[in-house]
Amino acid sequence: MFTLTIPLLEKILRPMIVYAALVILLRLFGKRELAQLNPFDLVVLLSLSNTVQNAIIGEDNSVIGGLIGAAALLLINYLTVRFLFRHRRLDQVLEGRPAVLVESGKIRHKALAGELMSTADLAHVAHRQGFRLADVQRCVLEPGGTFHITGRRDDTSTQILGRLDEVLAELRRNRPQ
Questions:
Q1: Local structure of residue 87 (DSSP, 8 states)
Q2: How far apart are CA 93 and CA 114, in angstroms?
Q3: Cβ neighbours of residue 115 under 8 Å, at least 6 residues apart?
Q4: Residue-range domains of the chain with CATH
Q5: I need a labelling partner for 87 at 20 to 30 A (CA). Which of 132, 147, 152, 177 fits?
Q6: Can you list the residues of the chain whose pLDDT is less than 70?
């Protein structure tokens, strides 16, 4: 239970190699994997962890071996994040660029296709953030997988906001000193 069955250096290198490979593969397969998980993506990610398990632990099922593997994964992640923080250009190359999916209220179908997203997927994202797709002025899928959505301001909301400003100004004027 507490004895390693493979050499310590191998125990440390295995998770680091798998970590690097997974980072590269997730980068190659796009932001969508990070942005929203549909049932198919979830199955792939769960299967992926099980698939690489033996590559990480090898033939060693000891507690110490598991702790060493976990520590190696955490260390490589810490070092990678720290290195990329200091080298922004490299970080941008590895992470990629934001994808503008909606610009000036118009859906950019080529950008959607590039992210392997359908219009229905985009509508779902908009709804999750409180927008109807028709009300989205701009939608950007960031490299980390988050969506930044800006809504349109229609005449009604502009009028309501203007009226609220007037009411607030009136309340301030009539406030007892």
A1: -
A2: 17
A3: 30, 31, 32, 35, 99, 101, 141
A4: 8-95 (no CATH), 97-177 (3.30.240.20)
A5: 147
A6: 29-42, 153-157, 177
